[in-house]
Amino acid sequence: MVDSDNFVSSFKQQLSMDSDPPFRQTYKTLFKDTNTIENLVIAVEECELPLIDLNRLSHRETAEKRESCKAEIATASQEWGFFQVINHGISRDLLEKMRQEQVKVFKQPFHNKTKEDKFPAGSYRWGTPTATCLRQLSWSEAFHIPMTDIHAGGSGSFNTTLSSTMEQFATTVAGLAQKLAEILEEKLGHKSTFFRENCLPSTCYLRMNRYPPCPIPVEVFGLMPHTDSDFLTILHQDQVGGLQLVKDGKWIAVKPNPEALIINIGDLFQAWSNDVYKSVEHRVMTNPSVERFSTAYFFCPSYDTVIHQNCTAKPSLYRKFSFIEFRQQVQEDVQKFGHKVGLPRFLLRSH
């Protein structure tokens, strides 16, 4: 009995000191027989996403160059659902500072990260609580924070350099998101104040991700295959790699570019554009020896914003729905099926 008590005490002490979430202990029932798990990883081709130099949008450039840049953004959003941008206006110093602060907060002991007196309630997430098999488990941890909560983190380490760095990053990236959304709207032949009125800094989210080394990378994703439930996502990632997306019916690996930010179309933009722009399935693969960090900015509307297409002459493919209705449906499906269904739920008819 004494040995058992010592073991439990030692185990608890290890958890309190370790920065990694206790994946193996918490999901031990999913690891009973990993030999029977179908191999999830096959060799995929690595490629570079369409690369767009945003300097060409400058008023110092010719109208022809500006229009050419806008056309490339729209084409990539139609054909890939993903692209990368350079000369995006976010300084290298700020990106590096964001990464440094992110590493610091994730390196805290696991039990510190779970304390809601240090961080906004519900912001720290790890693993997949609804997972019933290894295919549904994401080997990652994240702080998913509404922009309104950046200064609401209590008295802990959140309200220090990390908070101000996050705010700097988000404020700068918000301007880029607005610019790209308006360009995509313009290329549909439509101009309005929709994004400025509905996608405000207070309605958007920042998510800091860490993907710890995984001892069984063949069986477990860093992040399950999914599409994003927003208009646009702007991603800053390190050079470890692991991001993959579906192109022409097959998975491809995204080659990291240290100078670029990655942009991808979300579900709301696909519905709003009547399927002109594509919200593409993507995932993150695990690494057996190297951790990966990324920061994502989710360009979202207010919950009561109604999504409906009025940018194309074609009949709408989707019924009108609010953002909160979409989110609630996603949550219900994840609870019921273990994965997101997404836009097909809102089709007016089968296609």
UniProtKB/TrEMBL annotation:
Keyword Transmembrane: no
GO BP field: gibberellin metabolic process
Catalytic activity: gibberellin A1 + 2-oxoglutarate + O2 = gibberellin A8 + succinate + CO2
Superkingdom per UniProt: Eukaryota
Metal-binding keyword on record: yes
Domain Fe2OG dioxygenase: 202-301
Enzyme class: oxidoreductase
MF term (GO), any: gibberellin 2-beta-dioxygenase activity
PROSITE patterns in the cross-refs: FE2OG_OXY
Signal peptide (from-to): none
Keywords on record: Dioxygenase, Iron, Metal-binding, Oxidoreductase
Family: Belongs to the iron/ascorbate-dependent oxidoreductase family. GA2OX subfamily.
PANTHER family: 2-OXOGLUTARATE (2OG) AND FE(II)-DEPENDENT OXYGENASE SUPERFAMILY PROTEIN-RELATED
Listed name of the protein: gibberellin 2beta-dioxygenase
Organism listed in the record: Dipteronia sinensis
